Amino acid sequence: MKNMKLRYLKVIEEIFNAQSLVGASSKLNLTPTAVSKACLEAENILGLKLFTRSNSGMTPTDICLPVVEAGRVIKFELEKLACKVNEFKEIKSGVINIGFQAPALESRMMQVISALKMKYSSIKIRVLYKERPIIIDMLEKGDLDFAFVDFFQLNQNDKLNLSVMHCDNCFAASRANSLSLPELLMGWQENRCNLWVLPVKGIALRERFDAILSARDLRPPLNIIEYNSSVGLNDLFHYSNGWGIVPFYTVPLEQKHFLSERRYELLDEMKLESGLIWLKNRTRLPHIEDAIRMFAENEVENTESGRCFPT
Fold it and tell me: Superfamily for 90-167+273-302?
C-alpha cells in the first residue's frame, strides 16, 4: 500500500462515477489510455480487480466502493490538514464551489461573495451556472459546497437543508400586453396559439408552468422558442413579440411603483421560492461553514406582497 498514490485514488473515483474510461478521462483531462494505465497500476498494487471491463464500460466490483470511499476520506482529511496548516500560519485558504440557477438572487449573491472574499482574501471562489438537475447532482457528489436554486419540489428531498432568500410570483406578458395567470388560463384555448418564449425543460419556472397546465388538462403551447440563459432575452421578446411567464422581480423599477386601477390576481401554484441549499450531515471545512452562515443569514426578500398589475 505504500506505493498507492493519491492520483490513483482520484482516477478510481472518476471511473467509478462515470463507469467508462472516456467519461473519466474527460473529467480528469487525461487520455483514456492514461486513465486505463493508472487504473491497472492501482489494481496491481492492491492485488484486486476494481472494475469488470466490457464493451459497455467499466462495472465496479464489490471492493471498488470501499476503495472509493477511503479515497474520499483521505482527500477530505488532507484538505482539512491544509486548512489547519494555513490557519496556523494565520492564512485562511481553500476553495468554495458555488452552484447558481436563481437569477432573482444574482445581485444579493454577488454582494455576499464580495464580502466573503474580503474576509478570506486567499480563498478561491468558483461560481458555476448550471441547470437545476445538474446542480443537485453535483451537490450530492461533493462537486459543489452549496448552491442557489428555485425550491420547486425540493422540500421533498430529505438530503438537503434549505434557506429561503427570495419569494415571488409571476404574470404572463408580451411586448404589447400582459395578463394575470388566472386570466391566461381562462383563455388558454386562444392563448396557447401565440408564440411562447419559455425556459427549457429542467428549469424550475418551466416545470411550474408545465405542472399548472397538466393539472388543468390544458395542452402545452403550439409554437415555442426555448432558452436556458437570460442573455439576449429582452431582445428576443421585443423582436418576436412572443409571450412569456415573467417573475415580478424582472419588472423595471419605474414600473413597479405604477399603480393600476385593478389589483393583480396571483396564482398560488406559481408562487416562487428560491435560496440557498446545502447537504445535511456532511462535515465541512470552517470557511465553507462560515460562508453558508453568511448567506443563510440574509433577510428574505419578498416581491410578491402588495403587487399591482404591471402596465
Answer: Periplasmic binding protein-like II (3.40.190.10)
Give domain limits for the chain. 6-69, 90-167+273-302, 168-272
- pLDDT bracket for residue 86 (50, 70, 90): confident
Whether 6-69 shares its CATH topology with 90-167+273-302 is answered no
Please state the pTM of the whole predicted model. 0.62
Cβ contacts of 278 within 8 Å, gap of 6 or more: 139, 145, 146, 147, 160, 161, 292
Query: Taking the domain 6-69, which CATH number applies?
Result: 1.10.10.10
CATH class of 168-272: alpha beta
* Residue whose C-alpha is closest to residue 269's, from 212, 222, 217, 309: 212
Selection from 227, 262, 263 nearest residue 244 by Cα: 227
Calpha distance 128→113 (Å, rounded): 13
Q: Side-chain half-sphere of 124: how many Cα atoms within 13 Å?
A: 4
Residue 291 has pLDDT above 60, yes or no: yes
DSSP assignment of 92-160: -EEEEEEEEE-GGGHHHHHHHHHHHHHHSTEEEEEEEE--HHHHHHHHHHTS-SEEEEE-TTGGG-TTE
Give the mean pLDDT of the chain: 86
Cβ-Cβ contacts under 8 Å for 147 (sequence gap 6 or more): 98, 99, 100, 101, 135, 136, 138, 139, 276, 277, 278
**Residue whose cell numbers read 474527460:** 26
